[in-house]
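Need tokens for this chain, all 321 residues.
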Amino acid sequence: MTAYIIRRAIIGILVLLIVTMLVFLFMRLLPGDPLLVYMAGYDVQRAQKIGIEEYNALKHQWGLDKPIYVQYVDWLKNILRGDLGKSIKLQQKITSLIADALPRTAYIGFISFIIGTFLGILFGVICALRRGTWIDNLITTVSNIGITVPTFWLGILMIYILSYKMHWLPTSGWTSPAEDFVKSTKQIIMPVICMSVGSIAGLARLTRSCMLEVMRQDYVRTAWSKGLRERVIVFRHQIKNAIIPIVTTLGGALGAILGGSVIIETVFAIPGMGRLMTTAIFDQDYQIVQAGVLIFGGIIIFSNLLVDIAYAWIDPRIRYS
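Here are the structure tokens for all 321 residues:
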């Protein structure tokens, strides 16, 4: 297992290098110039008066006058020293920007992940155990609807009904739970629901299918013939053997917590990683985008590694050489 983990870690690092290299290249191929955005701001007249000397001085200051491969190597050296760089547009260290934005995204994403996982597996197990009944038909129908509902549409609809019409919840914004827990809870209810709906629906359908497949196996029929209680059969024989495909899906969901928050944070005006990355892409703020991709990629690679380790823990028959 140790050799496998080391091998996967090396492969993950190589994948991360390739991804950051592609992002590094494509961001610089996009039309536009981040230095002009920074120098002009929102003043169009100033943009027309920018001198070539001032522009070249800034270009040299940010190292954008070097060949692109030299820029990439310099960026990697800074990363190894723990320096993510400085934002061109915001003129702030990216480490501090991410330190502010990442906990907000992780807080909402982690709550959504827990709720989506628990309810999705619970509903899927109920559907499988009560196959063909009204509750199975109801949950399956709602799950099909939940998968197809666009997240941004659901968020706007909830704002209109729960905030504008009923005045139950605030429309948008973010408050740290350490400052005001009640206000923070009210502000994250709608974002958490929007992020959880797709996970609940997808996991419910997947869990139902896996459970039905396991229920037809010989060892399950043998357990019933031995007179074991239903609770023992469900937890010890059915769920345990049906959970491997579910763990695979959970690994992908865990890696998508940060990336999937872009739409939610835009709709509800939450200053998290998704919104920070979106703004940086439109402003062509290279440094923020590169640092964000590095963090997102590292989290996804780490979550996939955790999934592989979980396989061996769940099923002792699985061994890695």
